[in-house]
Amino acid sequence: MAGVTVRAPAKINLHLGVGPVRDDGFHPLDTIYQAISLYDDVTVTDADEWSVHVEGVGGVDVSEVPLGERNIALQAGLLLSGHHGLDRRARIEIAKAIPVAGGMAGGSADAAATLVALDRLWGLGTADDHLLLLAASLGSDVPFALVGGTARGTGRGEVVTAVPDNGAWWWLVVPDPEGLSTPAVYRAFDDLPPQESLDPAAVLGALAHADLVALADALRNDLEAPAFMLRPDLAETAGVLERPGVMRVLLSGSGPTLLGLVGTQEQALLLRERLLDDGRPAWIAHGPVAGAHVVEYA
Ligand code: C5P
Predict the structure, then answer these.
(1) Which of 22, 70, 186 to mutate to test the pocket of ligand 1 (most atoms within 8 A of CB)?
(2) How many CB atoms lie within 10 A of CB 234?
(3) Can you tell me the distance from the alpha carbon of 18 to that of 228, in angstroms, rounded to the nearest whole number?
(4) Which atom number of ligand 1 is nearest to the Cα of residue 108?
(5) Ligand 1 midpoint to CA 186 (Å)
(6) In a mutational test of the pocket of ligand 1, which residue from 72, 137, 140 has the highest number of ligand atoms less than 8 Å from its CB?
(7) What's the CA gap between 51 and 159, in Å, rounded?
(8) Inter-residue contact 106 to 42 (CB < 8 Å)
């Protein structure tokens, strides 16, 4: 086999409950992830040396993506070959449609896709629980990128369990040209007075009943306040997005991408046009969608 292409989705958090920082520097999370229809495609081929090549799709700026061993997809490749005691290397090509440093776990998607792609390219048959463990060691969001759908994340986000979701949800996805550092947002969270940590029961109920109004009401992100503190302009943009047809505006993960929950695809298309007229490019996406999966064997 010459090459394998794996597609992995962006994630959003419908509930992001954050607890006080742990001794290891991470924060305990109780989160509901949803995989949405923005994807990175990762193609791997055998090579004499490891390398990563990144191309932006749909206007995504990839200038900040590291290409050496700091690249999380390359780290995933090294980890998988080490796990199997292999002396093999690969060329990793990433077609990136998920915004970089956008709070949508694009790097995690690339890592998850690389694990699956190399597993298939090299016929390794890595057990799912081993893949999940390798994924967790790469980053808190990587296991979810493998699993996809809608899932509850606990621990530091790496312990994922599928949850019932009977909806087909439409999202306006409003990127921001400037990335936001996840550790910086968590540090700003630490500086804010502690708040009551809610569980995601309301979101879980709305998903199970496919209840749009209830979901709009239940969405919650504990990182919104610290992100808006670091970037007050994001709160302003969120205000601009609050308009008829948008059921609720929410920050995606640690930001800066903003999300608008919309009732139908038609409304989402219309709202995207209006935003474009206002000089604000946006994408539309639906969820839940599948986790990392093979789309091509070459
Ligand atoms: O796990 P990941 O590499 O994605 O985490 C990036 C950074 O985000 C961590 O170094 C930490 O600063 C912060 N983080 C956190 N608590 C989590 C997840 C991430 O503080 N549960």
Answers:
(1) 186
(2) 22
(3) 16
(4) 4
(5) 8
(6) 140
(7) 30
(8) no
pLDDT at 195 over 90: no
- CB contact at 8 A, 97 and 39: yes
User: Catalytic one among 30, 41, 119, 141?
Assistant: 141
Neighbours of 238 (CB within 10 A): 18
Are the beta carbons of 88 and 42 closer than 8 angstroms? no
Which of 11, 41, 119, 222 is catalytic? The answer is 11
Nearest to 246 by CA among 228, 259, 233, 234: 259
Q: What is the pLDDT of residues 76-127, one digit of tens each?
A: 999 999 999 999 999 999 999 999 999 999 999 999 999 999 999 999 999 9
Q: Which helix H or strand E contains 4, and what residues bound it?
A: strand 3-18
Contact assessment for residue 15 and residue 203, using Cβ atoms and an 8 Å cutoff: yes
Rounded distance between C-alpha atoms, residue 220 and residue 31, angstroms: 9
The model's pLDDT over 126-176, given as tens digits with 9 standing for 90+, comes to: 999 999 999 999 999 999 999 999 999 999 999 999 999 999 999 999 999
Q: Pairing between strand 29-47 and 3-18?
A: antiparallel
CA distances to 6, 180, 196, 258, 270 from 144, rounded to whole Å, are 15, 21, 26, 20, 31
Burial of 223 (0-12, 13-18, 19+ CB in 10 A): buried
Is residue 96 among the annotated active site residues?
no
| C-alpha span between 118 and 45 (Å, rounded) | 8
Ligand 1 centroid vs 242 CA: distance in angstroms?
30
User: For residue 50, how far is the Cα from the chain centroid?
Assistant: 25
The residue whose CB lies within 8 Å of the most ligand 1 atoms, and thus the one to mutate among 156, 182, 185, 191, is 182
Q: What is the CA(66)–ligand 1 centre distance, in A?
A: 18
Query: Would the pTM of this model clear 0.85, i.e. be above it?
Result: yes
